[in-house]
Write a structure and sequence with these properties.
By secondary structure, the protein is of the alpha/beta class. The protein is built from five helices and 33 strands. The strands form seven sheets. It has a nine-stranded parallel beta sheet, with helices on one face.
Length: about 375
């Protein structure tokens, strides 16, 4: 049975991240939705997204026996049971829209057996990813470790609540502290935690990622594959392949792929007034208020200069090269050179990104280059 994760009608609320990726490949907890459903179903999971992004994922196989699932669902065990129990011609939905169904489309009107459920939780904004990350790591830890045995914790490292620590093979831990009394800790294959680092769960360190010496992590943090962190990190998500390798603070933030935070870069996650933080909604060009704490939403391919100070609730668009005096603005436009009205030229961005990818032994593919050119053409004049 083909399984497809589709982007729902609210994907634009996840900008800047869904300019460059499908909802099904947004990481929170340990997994992306695509990875999570692959484990749940023991099947390959395909992606159905907009026309611009679809070439990244290939053409999905669709027939009358396809299982369609909203990629933004926040899963729980009863909902999973309802989805995997569906039969051909059946679907489930709520007031938000189509949840899942087996058929040739994800249109409720095409299903004879459509059952309405109480409203199900979905992540529709970057702030949702931050809000759910603690619980999502716990959920994914159970999913990832059931029936598996952890590699031993090295004697040189201090571990608290060892049964909630899972280490894959070939991970390296040297003279660090792992405190899983506040939540589980999962260390993936090839990852490294260097000496002097203090990690408090819930925490996920992805494949071939690195925690540098004397790093402090306060929990509810996800570090995707081949990322590097240093300094102080709290309740944040790095999707993958990004660097926050030096001293500085990162809190309550979501960082896209292929970002580099220069030494001393820090973000504010709380206003001096203690008031409600406003975050820019790109689609409506309005401010959305998200609570008392919110850091930065940083799109893919962003670089910050040394000692960059990022203001509370900032949004930094794709491909920006950020340098400025004082705090950054709340909104740094896509493909900015600095923070004013200068554009990072696309040919230079592609050359620079090719260099950054080479650092991690990754290629900037022809499809990715064409995609970033297309996005540049559509966004470079976007007011922000």
């Amino acid at each position: 049975m083909p399984i497809i994760l589709f982007d729902n009608l609210f994907r634009h609320q996840l900008y800047p991240f869904t300019h460059t990726r499908a909802v099904g490949t947004i990481r929170s907890g340990i997994f992306t939705p695509q990875e999570r459903w692959g484990i749940i179903t023991s099947n390959q999971v395909q992606i159905f997204t907009n026309k611009t992004l679809q070439p990244l994922y290939g053409t999905p196989q669709i027939n009358s026996n396809t299982l369609w699932i909203d990629a933004a669902l926040i899963l729980n065990h009863p909902l999973i049971s309802q989805i995997v129990a569906l039969q051909a011609g059946q679907c489930i939905f709520d007031d938000t829209g189509f949840i899942a169904g087996i058929g040739a489309t994800n249109n409720i009107n095409d299903y004879a057996g459509a059952a309405k459920l109480d409203d199900q939780k979905r992540f529709h904004y970057a702030s949702d990813l931050i809000a759910i990350n603690d619980a999502q790591i716990r959920f994914d830890f159970e999913l990832a470790t059931t029936g598996k045995t952890s590699a031993p914790i090295p004697d040189t490292s201090l571990a608290i609540n060892k049964q909630q620590i899972f280490i894959e093979q070939n991970a390296t831990l040297l003279h660090c502290q792992l405190n899983a009394s506040t939540g589980p800790i999962y260390i993936a294959n090839g990852a490294e935690i260097q000496e002097g680092s203090c990690i408090r769960g819930p925490f996920f360190l992805g494949k071939d990622a690195c925690v540098k010496m004397n790093t402090v992590v306060y929990g509810a943090t996800t570090i995707g594959p081949k990322s590097i962190i240093g300094g102080e990190v709290k309740n944040s998500i790095l999707f993958g392949y990004s660097n926050k390798a030096h001293h500085g603070y990162l809190g309550d933030s979501v960082i896209g792929e292929w970002c580099n935070l220069g030494a001393g870069t820090s973000n504010s996650n709380v206003k001096n007034t203690g008031g409600i933080v406003g975050v820019w909604d790109e689609q409506t060009n309005t401010t959305r208020y998200v609570g008392n704490k919110m850091g930065v939403c940083m799109g893919d391919y962003v670089k910050t200069a040394i000692n960059t100070s990022i203001t509370t609730g900032a949004t930094i668009g794709e491909g920006a090269n950020v340098f400025c005096a004082g705090l950054t603005p709340n909104i740094v436009p896509h493909f900015s050179w600095g923070t004013e009205n200068t554009t990072y030229q696309i040919d230079k961005l592609i050359d620079d990104t090719t260099n950054w990818k080479a650092f991690k032994n990754e290629d900037f593919t022809a499809i990715e280059k064409q995609l970033i050119r297309t996005i540049f053409d559509s966004l470079k004049n976007n007011p922000s």
